[in-house]
Protein backbone atom coordinates (compact mmCIF):
# COMPACT_ATOMS: atom_id res chain seq x y z
CA UNK A 1 0.00 0.00 0.00
CA UNK A 2 1.35 3.44 -0.96
CA UNK A 3 1.74 5.66 2.11
CA UNK A 4 1.09 9.08 0.60
CA UNK A 5 -1.39 10.18 -2.06
CA UNK A 6 1.47 11.09 -4.37
CA UNK A 7 3.08 7.65 -4.03
CA UNK A 8 -0.32 6.04 -4.63
CA UNK A 9 -0.88 8.16 -7.76
CA UNK A 10 2.59 7.39 -9.10
CA UNK A 11 2.24 3.63 -8.60
CA UNK A 12 -1.26 3.56 -10.11
CA UNK A 13 -0.19 5.73 -13.06
CA UNK A 14 2.66 3.35 -13.88
CA UNK A 15 0.31 0.37 -13.63
CA UNK A 16 -2.05 1.76 -16.29
CA UNK A 17 0.82 2.94 -18.51
CA UNK A 18 2.97 -0.18 -18.53
CA UNK A 19 3.94 0.24 -22.18
CA UNK A 20 5.24 3.79 -21.91
CA UNK A 21 8.78 4.66 -20.89
CA UNK A 22 11.02 1.98 -19.41
CA UNK A 23 9.40 -1.43 -19.08
CA UNK A 24 9.28 -1.95 -15.32
CA UNK A 25 7.78 -5.43 -15.42
CA UNK A 26 8.04 -8.32 -17.84
CA UNK A 27 5.11 -9.50 -19.94
CA UNK A 28 4.76 -12.56 -17.71
CA UNK A 29 4.72 -10.41 -14.55
CA UNK A 30 2.13 -8.09 -16.07
CA UNK A 31 -0.03 -11.07 -16.95
CA UNK A 32 0.19 -12.56 -13.47
CA UNK A 33 -0.37 -9.25 -11.69
CA UNK A 34 -3.00 -7.61 -13.87
CA UNK A 35 -4.80 -10.04 -16.17
CA UNK A 36 -8.56 -10.41 -15.63
CA UNK A 37 -10.22 -13.35 -17.44
CA UNK A 38 -12.94 -11.26 -19.03
CA UNK A 39 -13.87 -13.99 -21.55
CA UNK A 40 -14.68 -16.70 -19.02
CA UNK A 41 -18.44 -16.27 -19.49
CA UNK A 42 -19.66 -17.96 -22.71
CA UNK A 43 -22.04 -15.12 -23.60
CA UNK A 44 -20.75 -12.48 -21.22
CA UNK A 45 -20.30 -8.75 -21.80
CA UNK A 46 -16.95 -9.26 -23.58
CA UNK A 47 -18.14 -12.07 -25.84
CA UNK A 48 -16.72 -15.60 -26.21
CA UNK A 49 -13.13 -16.59 -25.48
CA UNK A 50 -11.58 -16.02 -28.91
CA UNK A 51 -8.12 -17.11 -27.73
CA UNK A 52 -9.47 -20.52 -26.86
CA UNK A 53 -11.20 -20.76 -30.25
CA UNK A 54 -8.06 -19.68 -32.14
CA UNK A 55 -5.95 -22.19 -30.20
CA UNK A 56 -8.47 -24.92 -31.03
CA UNK A 57 -8.47 -23.95 -34.73
CA UNK A 58 -4.66 -24.14 -34.74
CA UNK A 59 -4.73 -27.54 -33.05
CA UNK A 60 -7.36 -28.88 -35.46
CA UNK A 61 -5.50 -27.74 -38.62
CA UNK A 62 -2.75 -29.85 -40.15
CA UNK A 63 0.17 -28.13 -41.85
CA UNK A 64 -0.63 -24.50 -41.22
CA UNK A 65 -3.34 -21.86 -41.18
CA UNK A 66 -4.00 -18.14 -41.48
CA UNK A 67 -6.42 -16.35 -39.19
CA UNK A 68 -7.34 -12.69 -38.78
CA UNK A 69 -8.05 -11.01 -35.46
CA UNK A 70 -9.91 -7.74 -35.87
CA UNK A 71 -11.07 -5.14 -33.41
CA UNK A 72 -10.85 -1.60 -32.15
CA UNK A 73 -7.48 -0.23 -31.25
CA UNK A 74 -7.22 -0.46 -27.48
CA UNK A 75 -9.77 -3.27 -27.16
CA UNK A 76 -7.23 -5.68 -25.67
CA UNK A 77 -6.14 -7.64 -28.76
CA UNK A 78 -2.43 -7.57 -27.88
CA UNK A 79 -3.09 -8.82 -24.35
CA UNK A 80 -5.14 -11.72 -25.70
CA UNK A 81 -2.56 -12.56 -28.37
CA UNK A 82 0.15 -12.71 -25.72
CA UNK A 83 -2.14 -15.00 -23.73
CA UNK A 84 -2.43 -17.20 -26.82
CA UNK A 85 1.37 -17.41 -26.99
CA UNK A 86 1.52 -18.46 -23.33
CA UNK A 87 -1.24 -21.04 -23.49
CA UNK A 88 -0.16 -22.93 -26.62
CA UNK A 89 1.23 -26.43 -26.01
CA UNK A 90 4.97 -25.76 -25.71
CA UNK A 91 5.82 -29.29 -26.82
CA UNK A 92 3.92 -28.87 -30.11
CA UNK A 93 4.26 -25.18 -30.97
CA UNK A 94 6.78 -22.33 -30.99
CA UNK A 95 5.05 -18.96 -30.54
CA UNK A 96 6.74 -16.03 -32.30
CA UNK A 97 5.28 -12.58 -31.62
CA UNK A 98 5.97 -9.63 -33.93
CA UNK A 99 4.80 -6.04 -33.48
CA UNK A 100 4.67 -4.94 -37.11
CA UNK A 101 5.02 -1.28 -36.08
CA UNK A 102 8.68 -2.05 -35.40
CA UNK A 103 9.15 -2.35 -39.17
CA UNK A 104 6.58 0.00 -40.73
CA UNK A 105 5.17 3.46 -40.27
CA UNK A 106 1.41 3.02 -39.63
CA UNK A 107 0.71 6.43 -41.15
CA UNK A 108 1.75 5.20 -44.61
CA UNK A 109 0.22 2.60 -46.96
CA UNK A 110 1.45 -0.99 -46.83
CA UNK A 111 2.81 -2.70 -49.93
CA UNK A 112 2.90 -6.47 -50.13
CA UNK A 113 6.59 -6.85 -51.07
CA UNK A 114 7.93 -4.82 -48.17
CA UNK A 115 5.43 -6.53 -45.88
CA UNK A 116 6.77 -9.97 -46.77
CA UNK A 117 10.38 -8.85 -46.21
CA UNK A 118 9.31 -7.35 -42.87
CA UNK A 119 7.70 -10.65 -41.88
CA UNK A 120 10.89 -12.56 -42.61
CA UNK A 121 13.12 -10.10 -40.72
CA UNK A 122 10.63 -9.88 -37.83
CA UNK A 123 10.49 -13.65 -37.51
CA UNK A 124 14.28 -13.81 -37.25
CA UNK A 125 14.37 -11.02 -34.67
CA UNK A 126 11.69 -12.54 -32.42
CA UNK A 127 12.37 -16.27 -32.66
CA UNK A 128 14.11 -16.65 -29.29
CA UNK A 129 12.07 -19.70 -28.26
CA UNK A 130 12.73 -21.68 -31.44
CA UNK A 131 16.03 -23.18 -30.32
CA UNK A 132 17.74 -22.27 -33.61
CA UNK A 133 21.03 -20.35 -33.29
CA UNK A 134 20.40 -16.69 -34.07
CA UNK A 135 23.41 -16.54 -36.36
CA UNK A 136 21.98 -19.31 -38.53
CA UNK A 137 18.70 -17.42 -38.87
CA UNK A 138 20.56 -14.21 -39.75
CA UNK A 139 22.53 -16.06 -42.44
CA UNK A 140 19.31 -17.34 -43.97
CA UNK A 141 17.93 -13.78 -43.97
CA UNK A 142 21.06 -12.46 -45.68
CA UNK A 143 20.76 -15.22 -48.27
CA UNK A 144 17.16 -14.20 -49.01
CA UNK A 145 18.22 -10.59 -49.59
CA UNK A 146 21.05 -11.69 -51.89
CA UNK A 147 18.78 -13.88 -54.01
CA UNK A 148 16.28 -11.04 -54.38
CA UNK A 149 19.15 -8.60 -55.12
CA UNK A 150 18.18 -6.32 -52.23
CA UNK A 151 20.87 -4.16 -50.62
CA UNK A 152 20.49 -2.60 -47.19
CA UNK A 153 22.25 0.74 -46.71
CA UNK A 154 24.56 0.25 -43.72
CA UNK A 155 24.02 3.88 -42.71
CA UNK A 156 20.36 3.05 -42.00
CA UNK A 157 21.20 0.38 -39.47
CA UNK A 158 20.49 0.86 -35.80
CA UNK A 159 22.95 -1.90 -35.00
CA UNK A 160 25.41 -2.86 -37.71
CA UNK A 161 25.89 -6.61 -37.80
CA UNK A 162 22.28 -7.40 -36.94
CA UNK A 163 20.53 -7.99 -40.25
CA UNK A 164 17.02 -7.87 -38.78
CA UNK A 165 17.67 -4.43 -37.28
CA UNK A 166 19.22 -3.25 -40.54
CA UNK A 167 16.04 -4.21 -42.37
CA UNK A 168 13.88 -2.67 -39.67
CA UNK A 169 15.57 0.69 -40.18
CA UNK A 170 15.51 0.35 -43.99
CA UNK A 171 11.80 -0.43 -44.16
CA UNK A 172 10.87 2.44 -41.87
CA UNK A 173 13.28 5.10 -43.12
CA UNK A 174 14.89 4.23 -46.46
CA UNK A 175 12.70 4.89 -49.51
CA UNK A 176 15.50 3.63 -51.78
CA UNK A 177 15.33 0.19 -50.14
CA UNK A 178 11.53 0.10 -50.36
CA UNK A 179 11.80 1.01 -54.05
CA UNK A 180 14.22 -1.93 -54.54
CA UNK A 181 11.67 -4.24 -52.95
CA UNK A 182 8.84 -2.94 -55.16
CA UNK A 183 10.97 -3.39 -58.27
CA UNK A 184 11.96 -6.94 -57.28
CA UNK A 185 8.30 -7.82 -56.69
CA UNK A 186 7.01 -6.23 -59.88
CA UNK A 187 9.73 -7.75 -62.08
CA UNK A 188 8.82 -11.30 -61.07
CA UNK A 189 6.11 -11.70 -58.46
CA UNK A 190 6.18 -15.49 -58.64
CA UNK A 191 9.93 -15.70 -57.95
CA UNK A 192 9.68 -13.14 -55.14
CA UNK A 193 6.90 -15.09 -53.43
CA UNK A 194 8.71 -18.39 -53.97
CA UNK A 195 11.94 -17.10 -52.40
CA UNK A 196 10.15 -15.76 -49.32
CA UNK A 197 8.19 -18.98 -48.88
CA UNK A 198 11.33 -21.10 -49.29
CA UNK A 199 12.96 -19.01 -46.56
CA UNK A 200 10.10 -19.81 -44.16
CA UNK A 201 10.04 -23.48 -45.22
CA UNK A 202 13.74 -23.79 -44.38
CA UNK A 203 13.28 -22.15 -40.98
CA UNK A 204 10.31 -24.40 -40.16
CA UNK A 205 12.32 -27.45 -41.20
CA UNK A 206 14.97 -26.60 -38.61
CA UNK A 207 12.58 -26.39 -35.66
CA UNK A 208 13.80 -28.75 -32.90
CA UNK A 209 11.49 -31.65 -32.15
CA UNK A 210 9.31 -30.92 -35.15
CA UNK A 211 7.51 -28.13 -33.32
CA UNK A 212 5.32 -25.88 -35.47
CA UNK A 213 5.72 -22.09 -35.35
CA UNK A 214 2.69 -19.95 -34.51
CA UNK A 215 3.55 -16.54 -35.93
CA UNK A 216 1.51 -13.74 -34.32
CA UNK A 217 1.74 -10.52 -36.35
CA UNK A 218 0.27 -7.71 -34.28
CA UNK A 219 -0.63 -4.01 -34.76
CA UNK A 220 -1.71 -4.03 -38.42
CA UNK A 221 -4.89 -2.53 -36.96
CA UNK A 222 -2.86 0.62 -36.16
CA UNK A 223 -2.63 1.49 -39.87
CA UNK A 224 -5.16 4.24 -40.46
CA UNK A 225 -3.17 7.09 -41.99
CA UNK A 226 -2.24 10.63 -41.13
CA UNK A 227 0.63 11.40 -43.46
CA UNK A 228 -1.33 9.63 -46.19
CA UNK A 229 -5.14 9.87 -46.58
CA UNK A 230 -7.15 7.37 -44.55
CA UNK A 231 -8.68 5.86 -47.71
CA UNK A 232 -5.27 5.16 -49.23
CA UNK A 233 -3.99 3.41 -46.11
CA UNK A 234 -7.24 1.47 -45.65
CA UNK A 235 -7.20 0.32 -49.28
CA UNK A 236 -3.60 -0.87 -48.94
CA UNK A 237 -4.48 -3.00 -45.88
CA UNK A 238 -7.58 -4.47 -47.52
CA UNK A 239 -5.64 -5.17 -50.73
CA UNK A 240 -2.95 -6.96 -48.75
CA UNK A 241 -5.50 -9.45 -47.41
CA UNK A 242 -7.66 -9.61 -50.55
CA UNK A 243 -5.41 -9.51 -53.63
CA UNK A 244 -2.32 -10.97 -51.97
CA UNK A 245 -3.93 -13.42 -49.54
CA UNK A 246 -2.07 -16.45 -50.89
CA UNK A 247 1.28 -14.79 -50.20
CA UNK A 248 0.41 -14.29 -46.53
CA UNK A 249 -0.12 -18.00 -45.94
CA UNK A 250 3.37 -19.03 -44.84
CA UNK A 251 4.34 -22.67 -45.42
CA UNK A 252 4.41 -25.04 -42.48
CA UNK A 253 3.24 -22.59 -39.83
CA UNK A 254 0.15 -20.99 -38.35
CA UNK A 255 -0.12 -17.22 -38.75
CA UNK A 256 -2.43 -14.86 -36.86
CA UNK A 257 -2.67 -11.31 -38.23
CA UNK A 258 -4.44 -8.44 -36.53
CA UNK A 259 -6.44 -6.19 -38.84
CA UNK A 260 -8.39 -2.96 -38.28
CA UNK A 261 -12.06 -3.18 -37.38
CA UNK A 262 -12.89 -1.46 -40.68
CA UNK A 263 -11.03 -3.98 -42.88
CA UNK A 264 -13.34 -6.18 -44.96
CA UNK A 265 -11.04 -8.21 -47.23
CA UNK A 266 -12.89 -9.27 -50.37
CA UNK A 267 -13.08 -13.03 -50.80
CA UNK A 268 -11.29 -13.82 -47.54
CA UNK A 269 -12.41 -17.33 -46.59
CA UNK A 270 -10.41 -17.90 -43.40
CA UNK A 271 -11.75 -17.03 -39.93
CA UNK A 272 -11.92 -13.39 -38.81
CA UNK A 273 -12.13 -13.21 -35.03
CA UNK A 274 -13.57 -9.94 -33.64
CA UNK A 275 -12.31 -8.47 -30.35
CA UNK A 276 -14.68 -5.65 -29.47
CA UNK A 277 -15.33 -3.40 -26.52
CA UNK A 278 -16.76 -4.70 -23.25
CA UNK A 279 -20.48 -4.04 -23.07
CA UNK A 280 -21.09 -1.46 -20.35
CA UNK A 281 -24.62 -0.47 -21.41
CA UNK A 282 -27.69 -2.18 -22.81
CA UNK A 283 -29.54 -1.15 -25.96
CA UNK A 284 -32.07 0.78 -23.88
CA UNK A 285 -29.26 2.85 -22.32
CA UNK A 286 -29.29 1.15 -18.92
CA UNK A 287 -26.13 -0.14 -17.29
CA UNK A 288 -24.73 -3.55 -18.17
CA UNK A 289 -23.78 -4.45 -14.64
CA UNK A 290 -21.67 -7.46 -15.60
CA UNK A 291 -19.52 -5.38 -17.96
CA UNK A 292 -19.02 -2.55 -15.48
CA UNK A 293 -18.04 -5.02 -12.77
CA UNK A 294 -15.50 -6.69 -15.08
CA UNK A 295 -13.80 -3.37 -15.86
CA UNK A 296 -13.90 -2.43 -12.19
CA UNK A 297 -11.92 -5.62 -11.52
CA UNK A 298 -9.43 -4.64 -14.26
CA UNK A 299 -8.78 -1.35 -12.44
CA UNK A 300 -8.68 -2.97 -9.01
CA UNK A 301 -5.89 -5.28 -10.25
CA UNK A 302 -3.82 -2.19 -11.13
CA UNK A 303 -4.67 0.03 -8.16
CA UNK A 304 -2.06 -0.02 -5.36
CA UNK A 305 -3.31 -2.42 -2.70
CA UNK A 306 -6.41 -3.01 -4.84
CA UNK A 307 -7.83 0.25 -3.41
CA UNK A 308 -9.62 1.75 -6.42
CA UNK A 309 -11.95 3.90 -4.32
CA UNK A 310 -8.97 5.83 -2.93
CA UNK A 311 -8.73 7.46 -6.36
CA UNK A 312 -12.27 7.39 -7.72
CA UNK A 313 -14.48 7.25 -4.63
CA UNK A 314 -18.10 7.18 -5.84
CA UNK A 315 -17.14 7.98 -9.46
CA UNK A 316 -15.98 4.47 -10.41
CA UNK A 317 -19.05 3.49 -12.44
CA UNK A 318 -19.18 6.87 -14.15
CA UNK A 319 -15.58 6.64 -15.35
CA UNK A 320 -16.14 3.10 -16.63
CA UNK A 321 -19.30 4.17 -18.50
CA UNK A 322 -17.42 7.08 -20.07
CA UNK A 323 -14.80 4.69 -21.49
CA UNK A 324 -17.38 3.00 -23.68
CA UNK A 325 -15.97 -0.34 -22.55
CA UNK A 326 -12.58 0.20 -24.23
CA UNK A 327 -9.46 -0.57 -22.20
CA UNK A 328 -7.40 2.16 -23.83
CA UNK A 329 -10.01 4.83 -23.16
CA UNK A 330 -10.49 3.62 -19.59
CA UNK A 331 -6.76 3.84 -18.88
CA UNK A 332 -6.59 7.28 -20.53
CA UNK A 333 -9.36 8.57 -18.26
CA UNK A 334 -7.77 7.11 -15.14
CA UNK A 335 -4.31 8.41 -16.12
CA UNK A 336 -5.65 11.93 -16.58
CA UNK A 337 -7.35 11.82 -13.18
CA UNK A 338 -4.16 10.55 -11.52
CA UNK A 339 -2.35 13.67 -12.74
CA UNK A 340 -4.73 16.03 -10.91
CA UNK A 341 -3.36 17.82 -7.86
CA UNK A 342 -6.42 17.84 -5.63
CA UNK A 343 -7.15 15.68 -2.61
CA UNK A 344 -8.23 12.08 -3.05
CA UNK A 345 -10.66 10.77 -3.99
CA UNK A 346 -11.13 12.92 -7.10
CA UNK A 347 -14.20 15.11 -7.24
CA UNK A 348 -17.04 15.00 -9.75
CA UNK A 349 -15.78 18.35 -11.04
CA UNK A 350 -12.35 16.87 -11.81
CA UNK A 351 -14.02 14.03 -13.73
CA UNK A 352 -16.01 16.71 -15.60
CA UNK A 353 -12.76 18.44 -16.58
CA UNK A 354 -11.16 15.27 -17.92
CA UNK A 355 -14.26 14.27 -19.86
CA UNK A 356 -14.59 17.77 -21.31
CA UNK A 357 -10.98 17.68 -22.50
CA UNK A 358 -11.47 14.32 -24.21
CA UNK A 359 -14.72 15.52 -25.82
CA UNK A 360 -12.96 18.58 -27.18
CA UNK A 361 -10.23 16.45 -28.73
CA UNK A 362 -12.88 14.35 -30.47
CA UNK A 363 -14.95 17.30 -31.70
CA UNK A 364 -12.03 18.95 -33.47
CA UNK A 365 -11.39 15.85 -35.59
CA UNK A 366 -14.96 15.25 -36.85
CA UNK A 367 -16.41 16.47 -40.14
CA UNK A 368 -20.03 17.46 -40.75
CA UNK A 369 -20.57 14.19 -42.64
CA UNK A 370 -19.23 12.19 -39.71
CA UNK A 371 -21.54 13.97 -37.28
CA UNK A 372 -24.46 12.95 -39.49
CA UNK A 373 -23.31 9.31 -39.50
CA UNK A 374 -23.03 9.37 -35.71
CA UNK A 375 -26.56 10.73 -35.48
CA UNK A 376 -27.82 7.88 -37.68
CA UNK A 377 -26.00 5.30 -35.55
CA UNK A 378 -27.50 6.73 -32.38
CA UNK A 379 -31.01 6.58 -33.77
CA UNK A 380 -30.88 3.20 -35.56
CA UNK A 381 -28.27 1.41 -33.37
CA UNK A 382 -26.84 0.04 -36.61
CA UNK A 383 -24.02 1.13 -38.91
CA UNK A 384 -25.63 1.21 -42.34
CA UNK A 385 -24.65 4.08 -44.61
CA UNK A 386 -24.74 4.86 -48.36
CA UNK A 387 -21.72 3.68 -50.33
CA UNK A 388 -20.39 7.23 -50.61
CA UNK A 389 -20.21 7.48 -46.81
CA UNK A 390 -18.49 4.14 -46.19
CA UNK A 391 -14.98 5.67 -45.90
CA UNK A 392 -16.24 8.17 -43.29
CA UNK A 393 -18.02 5.39 -41.36
CA UNK A 394 -14.93 3.20 -41.32
CA UNK A 395 -12.82 6.11 -40.12
CA UNK A 396 -15.25 6.55 -37.21
CA UNK A 397 -14.82 2.87 -36.35
CA UNK A 398 -11.03 3.18 -36.52
CA UNK A 399 -11.19 6.13 -34.13
CA UNK A 400 -13.43 4.19 -31.73
CA UNK A 401 -16.27 6.72 -31.97
CA UNK A 402 -18.66 4.05 -33.29
CA UNK A 403 -18.67 0.95 -31.08
CA UNK A 404 -20.13 -2.50 -31.66
CA UNK A 405 -21.72 -4.55 -28.88
CA UNK A 406 -21.87 -8.17 -29.94
CA UNK A 407 -23.86 -9.72 -27.08
CA UNK A 408 -27.55 -10.42 -27.25
CA UNK A 409 -29.65 -11.73 -30.12
CA UNK A 410 -28.03 -9.46 -32.71
CA UNK A 411 -24.99 -7.17 -32.81
CA UNK A 412 -25.83 -3.52 -32.30
CA UNK A 413 -23.89 -0.30 -32.62
CA UNK A 414 -23.60 2.73 -30.41
CA UNK A 415 -21.79 6.06 -30.30
CA UNK A 416 -18.91 6.45 -27.83
CA UNK A 417 -20.50 7.93 -24.66
CA UNK A 418 -18.34 11.07 -24.56
CA UNK A 419 -18.97 11.79 -28.24
CA UNK A 420 -22.67 11.01 -27.85
CA UNK A 421 -22.96 13.81 -25.30
CA UNK A 422 -21.63 16.25 -27.91
CA UNK A 423 -24.06 14.82 -30.43
CA UNK A 424 -26.96 15.54 -28.05
CA UNK A 425 -25.72 19.12 -27.68
CA UNK A 426 -25.51 19.59 -31.46
CA UNK A 427 -29.05 18.30 -31.85
TrEMBL record:
Upper taxonomic lineage: Bacteria, Bacillati, Actinomycetota, Actinomycetes, Actinomycetales
Protein name, per record: Orc1-like AAA ATPase domain-containing protein
Alphabetized InterPro entries for the sequence: P-loop_NTPase
